[in-house]
Amino acid sequence: MAEGLEPPFQKTDATFNTLPGWTWVGTYGGYYLQADLLQDFEHGFFTRLWQGREPAELAAFVSAGVSVHRPRQVHSALVLPASAATAEPWPEADGLVSDGGGQTLWVCGADCTPVLLADPASGRVAACHAGWRGVAGRILPAAIERMAAAGSDPADLLVALGPAVSGARYPVERWVSLEVAASLRPDPLEPDGALAELIEAGGLVVDAEPERDRLDIRAAIRLQLSHSGVTPDRCSSCPLCTVDEETLFHSWRRDRRKAVQWSGIVSQA
C-alpha cells in the first residue's frame, strides 16, 4: 500500500466497505474508485490522495499504452472530440467524446460532478465536468448528441456520476435552481412546473433562508439524463459527498482552495 493511504483505506473502514455499486481498486500507486456499472470499461475516479499526479501519469494506473486527452475546464457546456484535446495548450471545454480507440478522456473537479459515459455497443466513451453551469447549459445532452451522431443509441449508454457535493451541503440562490430546472427537458416546462419536477425527483429542497434552496446536482443530472433517453437503471451515482469526506476529496465549498481530483475513462473504439 502506498504511503499516506492508511486511514480511509483500511478494510475495516465503513467508507471502504459500504459503497453499493462501487468498488475501490487497489494498485501499486494507491486506490481509486470504479463504478460497477462500467466494469467492462477501464476507468477510475481518483481521490485527493493522488494529489500532484496529472492525467499523463494517472492514465498508466487505469490502462497501458493509451493516449491522454483533457480540456481546460471553464464551467461551460462545450463538448469536443477527444482528438481536439491532445496537448497543451489544452482547449477550453468541459466535455470530451472519444473519436478513436485507446483514448483516455479526463475531467477534474472539487464538488462539481465528474460524469463518465460509455456505449457498450460501440466502445465509445465520454467524460464531462458537470457543475450547475454545465448542467444548466445541457453539457450532458450535448455529449449524448455527439455520441449519437457517431452512431450510438442513447438507450444503450451507461453513465456513472462520481463523488460530488451532496444536496444537503449545496445551498444555492433560487435563480440558480430555476436555471437548472429549466435545463432538464429539451422543451422546458414553465418555471413553477420545472421546479416542481426537480423537487419531485429529489433534486431540490427549499432552504430555511428566503429565496435559497439545497440543490442535489446529481439528482438533477439523473433527471436530465432520463429526458435524454438514459433510463435510471443505466445510471449509477456515487454516494460520497466531497464536502463531507475531507480525507478523500478536495472541496472548493469546504476549503476555498484551488485543488482537484481527476476522473478518466478509456475508449474501446
Give a written overview of the molecule:
With 269 residues, this protein is an alpha+beta fold. The protein has a domain at 7-162 and 236-266: CNF1/YfiH-like putative cysteine hydrolases. Helices cover 23% and strands 25% of the residues. The protein is built from eight helices and 15 strands. It has helices spanning 14-17, 55-62, 132-136, 139-149, 174-182, 191-200, 217-226, 252-255, and strands at residues 22-27, 30-35, 43-45, 67-69, 79-81, 95-97, 103-109, 113-118, 125-130, 158-161, 171-173, 204-206, 212-215, 235-237, 261-266. It has a six-stranded mixed beta sheet. The protein has a four-stranded mixed beta sheet with strand order 3-15-7-4. A three-stranded antiparallel beta sheet has the order 11-13-12. Strand 8 and strand 9 (125-130) form a beta hairpin. Helix 5 crosses helix 6 (191-200). It is globular and about 50 Å long.
- What is the oligomer described by this structure? single chain
Strand percent estimate:
15-25%
Spans of at least 5 consecutive residues whose pLDDT stays below 50 are 1-7, 9-15
The 3D shape can be described as globular
CATH homologous superfamily of the domain at 7-162 and 236-266? Answer: CNF1/YfiH-like putative cysteine hydrolases
Q: Please identify the top-level CATH class of the domain at 7-162 and 236-266.
A: Alpha Beta
Radius of gyration: 18 Å
* Helix/strand/pairing category: alpha+beta
Largest sheet: 6 strands, mixed
The largest sheet has its strands arranged as 5-6-9-8-10-14
Architecture (CATH level 2) name of the domain at 7-162 and 236-266 = 4-Layer Sandwich
- The CATH topology of the domain at 7-162 and 236-266 is given as CNF1/YfiH-like putative cysteine hydrolases
User: Can you count the helices?
Assistant: 8
SSE pattern: HEEEHEEEEEEHHEEHHEEHEHE
